[in-house]
Amino acid sequence: MTDARHGLTITEVRLTPVLVADPPLLNTQGVHQPYTPRLIIEVATEGGATGLGETYGDTAYLALAQPLAGALTGRSVTDLNGLPELAAEVCGDPPAATGAGAVHVGGLRGVRTAGKLRLSVLSGFEVACLDAWGRTTGLPVHALLGGKVRDRVEFSAYLFYRWAQHPGGRGEPDDWGAALDPAGVVAQARRFADTHGFTSFKLKGGVFPPDEEIAAVRALAAEFPGRPLRLDPNGAWSVPTSCRVADELAGVLEYLEDPTSGTAGMAEVAAALRGARPGASGRAGLPLATNMCVTTFDEIAEAFARDAVQIVLADHHYWGGLRHTRELAAVCRTFGVGLSMHSNTHLGITLAAMTQVAATVPHLDHACDSHYPWQTEDVLTERIGFRDGRVDVSDAPGLGITLDRDRLAALHRRWLADDGGLRDRDDAAAMRHADPGWVTPATPRW
């Protein structure tokens, strides 16, 4: 039977950029803006199904999404292997792209090559197509990916140093209060544990001098003995500082994430941690994880050959979708590299997609990251819940979620009303509202 008879032909693609409330979370570059841009993708089919996808909403991504949306009409939602070629054809090389050696600092997303930008956009379209396909056939997305191997997916509490409010009272208020010292970080973690049942904790570092962040990790270990802890300074440290922190927190951390920038620096730290013994593995000591120096398939060979990282934090936006995430998982498994999942500020569509693909990966070695508990706004009729720090894998058709059009419209109106200052994530610009002289710190900071 043809896809037309199955009702799988795409008849319309709708793109809705939104601005979503974000708390004043601190990182090495600055602070999150009061609102962050996301792009909601709807793929409608001849059979009446509409699939949902989500990706970055910054202007560079939106500019690529528009021609790709126009080119999808008349194609089948099952033609996923054709998406990269189609994107290369209609999107071309975006002017916002940089070379393979340049790290995009905005949002700390690793390299910003043309290919990665296209993959970050088409990932949202792939998810929407899978959702529409599943809704049409009555199958969950995990079935279209080969079937689930677990019924629940574990997530980690994502801890941040933060202010009580955005500078000048901008944005949406919340009741979390400030967290600027070990006591504040522990209180934040306790609330996450009590509210969502998280038993694994990750602290976003690179904000304060390393000794202060070491103290915060030790305070977490005292409060939650035996629980997995991670620290991520987003490449803010030098190689010697990275090695010192690793020595200080050996036996305390589950892994250390991107302590220094770049594969070469990570390889140097990993070699030091394993004593530079020929043939020895960094996995014998404190593992290093990354979502910055291995974010494309082109970056895998050098990083794995040099044993620069022992855990890759996948992000289906970076890698081009859920099926590429499974391919990455297979490569990691082949080379004995661990796997977990990275998260940036996102809504429920992304969390649903993460959960569906995570359910299909046999060797998901660590709890996944998720910003979702920080987000007070969503475009779904019902928020996705965490139980014992886990999300139940939906067996409903597609992603198993429902779009709330009123909420979507409200967040889009906020985007329309913006003068352009918030349509691109810029943590340094947000910090200048508190410190007019702030510039993105050079790395290493310490």
From TrEMBL:
Keywords: Lyase. It catalyses: D-glucarate = 5-dehydro-4-deoxy-D-glucarate + H2O. GO terms for molecular function: glucarate dehydratase activity. SUPFAM superfamilies: Enolase C-terminal domain-like, Enolase N-terminal domain-like. Pfam families: MR_MLE_C. It is an enzyme of class 4 (lyase). The keyword 4Fe-4S does not apply. Residues 182-276 form the Mandelate racemase/muconate lactonizing enzyme C-terminal domain. It comes from the Bacteria. Its EC number is 4.2.1.40. Gene3D superfamilies: Enolase-like C-terminal domain, Enolase-like, N-terminal domain. Pathway: Carbohydrate acid metabolism; D-glucarate degradation; 2,5-dioxopentanoate from D-glucarate: step 1/2. PANTHER family: D-GALACTONATE DEHYDRATASE-RELATED, GLUCARATE DEHYDRATASE. This is glucarate dehydratase. It comes from Streptomyces platensis. The lineage of its organism: Bacteria, Bacillati, Actinomycetota, Actinomycetes, Kitasatosporales. The gene is gudD.
